[in-house]
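Structure in, sequence out. Go:
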């Protein structure tokens, strides 16, 4: 089963959380509480109320009375119309009372004055009188008032904002790029936990016999290296998993992580590239450093084409290309001057044609493991894996399901099983049956039925004759795909659809392609022959037929005038630009030959329909009436098909082999009577 392992996220030094628990998010805000406490302390210290001296606010009348009674020794006049007076020690009890004698500091009184100019004249008059009388004059100082809030706003708040900005950069943006802004160059690889209970093993990977054998050898070497090194062998430095999407490349890597008893680092190709220059190369170095510290170890890079594309193709790119520098560092780490002992690289991609040639050479990726779409037997094994958790009824037939899903990948089969369970639950069933799986396959291939779409009787008749034309011709041709079901109920963007069982061939002959072309053109031929019209419903058929005809001439060398010539470029590395690899005269021949092939198959389709006109009309009318017909209806109308499909032949052959391999029972020996 396609299990999913959730690995512990690495810490900056590459080690996972040993307890498997995520840190408490509330603790990450502790720094903010400390910062707010510091700001509160600054406000408290800066507050004018926080003074060690005793202050008492008086009215202006009382304030001037103490001045005239010689109770004041010093005066401080502020420009905000306030004045503070220091009381003489001998007058302290008079001003503050006997209860305040415990205060050792000098007491002060404060009052609001009318204006600085008027109060200054008043004090000058008092001091002049005292000087004439031989008394001590009052010491007067004029100061500017300090706005502590303004001071904090100008000096403290900007500092706090700067601190908050750097903290946000390190925890916010930096957290998305590697934990902190200073650790942006560290690799974000996940370290697989080998003690996890729901880990994936090779038993959970159905099919992929050849690919499993390749990676099992790598795991076996890591478990018992002496067995191979005694003979002088060396473990491959890297293995590249190549195949279409959904075929199980990542699942195979998860199985390697579950089977190997060594550290397994997993990382995606896109994780290396960031907005900063040089980050990708730094992360590659850090990843290999972590792996070397824990060697022997395995590094898995998923979707390596994100950083492994061929260099030098984009002439508009500058010299400091981030992807190229990341690839250069990866090439150096895999097989450069530095030692890389004990570290094996696994990578997966579905675009091996765009990878750089230096990445694919021996010594870096020594092996390319092709993970192809499963065949009939492998699909059966995959169905057995994904059907385990489902509640099935007695109508289930795994062989039938495997036949009905040609070209499906492992991910598609998993989706079919899930859709079937959802359909059964939607219909309030207790178990999942065969019909639910058929509906799931139809849903995935053709899309959701649009029964609310309104069609006229003329459109419905045209679609029925079109689909009946496909069904008739494919049934009568030797290499035509066997029909499964025909419907004129709109699905997705199609107004009608026919389901076939394509033959799973390793090689395709010219006769196979011609029969396929004839079947594709059967819908248009039926419209022209029986309805005397041409509609846009044949657009997809004509597109596929035209591409196949051009492929026969330009790629496969199956043309009478261009024999054994192919202009196909399998490497994809030669960019012809605005020129073609052939002359204009050859291009005309290709056009003429392609048109001739299509015309011949159109004429052939018309002849087959004329010979089976009665059966075609009966099938079309049945489609108009029932909207859906199956193989049994076609067989009843047109008779049994003369040729068995390759799928049926494979199933019969496997059944015969299994029957032959069954151990035969030995005849039971008769018990001999001792007396006889």
């Amino acid at each position: 089963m396609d299990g999913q392992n959730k690995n512990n996220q690495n810490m900056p030094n590459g080690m996972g959380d040993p307890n498997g628990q995520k840190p408490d998010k509330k603790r990450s805000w502790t720094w903010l509480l400390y910062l707010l406490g510091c700001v509160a302390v600054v406000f408290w210290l800066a507050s004018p109320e926080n003074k060690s001296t005793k202050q008492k606010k008086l009215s202006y009348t009382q304030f001037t009375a103490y001045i005239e009674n010689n109770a004041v020794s010093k005066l401080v006049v502020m420009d905000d119309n306030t004045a503070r007076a220091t009381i003489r020690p001998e007058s302290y009890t008079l001003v503050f009372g006997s209860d305040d004698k415990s205060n050792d500091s000098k007491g002060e009184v404060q009052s609001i004055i009318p204006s600085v100019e008027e109060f200054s004249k008043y004090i000058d008059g008092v001091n002049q009188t005292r000087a004439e009388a031989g008394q001590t004059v009052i010491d007067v100082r004029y100061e500017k008032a300090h706005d502590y809030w303004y001071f904090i706003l100008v000096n403290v708040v900007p500092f706090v904002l700067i601190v908050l900005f750097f903290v946000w950069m390190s925890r916010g943006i930096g957290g998305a790029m590697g934990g902190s802004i200073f650790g942006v160059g560290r690799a974000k690889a996940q370290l697989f936990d080998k003690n996890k209970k729901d880990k994936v093993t090779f038993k959970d990977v159905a099919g992929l016999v050849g690919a499993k054998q390749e990676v099992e050898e790598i795991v076996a070497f890591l478990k018992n290296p002496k067995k191979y090194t005694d003979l002088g062998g060396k473990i491959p430095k890297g293995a590249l998993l190549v195949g279409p999407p959904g075929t199980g490349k990542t699942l195979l890597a998860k199985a390697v992580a579950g089977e190997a008893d060594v550290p397994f680092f997993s990382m995606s190709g896109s994780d290396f590239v960031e907005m900063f220059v040089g980050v990708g190369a730094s992360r590659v170095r850090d990843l290999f450093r972590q792996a070397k510290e824990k060697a022997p170890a395995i590094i898995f890079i998923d979707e390596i084409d994100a950083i492994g594309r061929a260099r030098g193709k984009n002439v508009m790119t500058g010299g400091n290309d981030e992807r190229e520098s990341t690839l250069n560092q990866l090439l150096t780490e895999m097989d450069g001057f530095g030692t890389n002992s004990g570290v094996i690289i696994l990578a997966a991609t579905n675009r091996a044609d765009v990878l750089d040639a230096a990445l694919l050479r021996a010594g870096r990726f020594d092996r390319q493991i092709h993970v192809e779409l499963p065949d009939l037997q492998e699909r059966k094994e995959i169905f057995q894996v994904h059907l385990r958790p489902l509640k099935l009824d007695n109508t289930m037939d795994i062989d039938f399901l495997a036949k009905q899903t040609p070209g499906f990948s492992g991910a598609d089969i998993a989706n079919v099983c899930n859709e079937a369970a959802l359909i059964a639950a939607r219909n309030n069933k207790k178990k999942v049956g065969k019909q639910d799986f058929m509906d799931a396959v139809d849903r995935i291939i053709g899309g959701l039925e649009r029964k609310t779409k309104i069609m006229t009787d003329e459109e419905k008749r045209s679609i029925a004759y079109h689909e009946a034309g496909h069904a008739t011709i494919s049934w009568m041709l030797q290499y035509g795909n066997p029909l499964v079901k025909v419907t004129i109920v709109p699905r997705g963007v199609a107004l009608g659809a026919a389901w076939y069982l394509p033959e799973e061939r390793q090689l395709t002959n010219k006769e196979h392609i011609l029969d396929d072309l004839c079947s594709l053109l059967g819908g248009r031929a039926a419209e022209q022959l029986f309805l005397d019209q041409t509609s846009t419903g044949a657009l997809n058929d004509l597109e596929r037929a035209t591409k196949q005809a051009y492929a026969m001439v330009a790629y496969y060398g199956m043309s009478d005038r261009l024999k054994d010539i192919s202009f196909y470029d399998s490497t994809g590395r030669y960019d012809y630009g605005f020129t073609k690899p052939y002359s204009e005269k050859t291009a005309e021949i290709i056009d003429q030959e392609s048109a001739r092939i299509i015309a011949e198959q159109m004429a052939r389709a018309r002849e087959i329909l004329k010979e089976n006109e009665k059966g075609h009309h009966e099938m079309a009318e049945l489609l108009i009436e029932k909207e859906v017909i199956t193989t049994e209806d076609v067989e009843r109308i047109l008779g049994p098909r003369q040729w068995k499909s390759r799928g049926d032949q494979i199933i019969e052959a496997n059944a015969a082999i299994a029957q032959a391999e069954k151990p035969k029972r030995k005849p039971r020996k008769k018990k001999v009577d001792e007396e006889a």
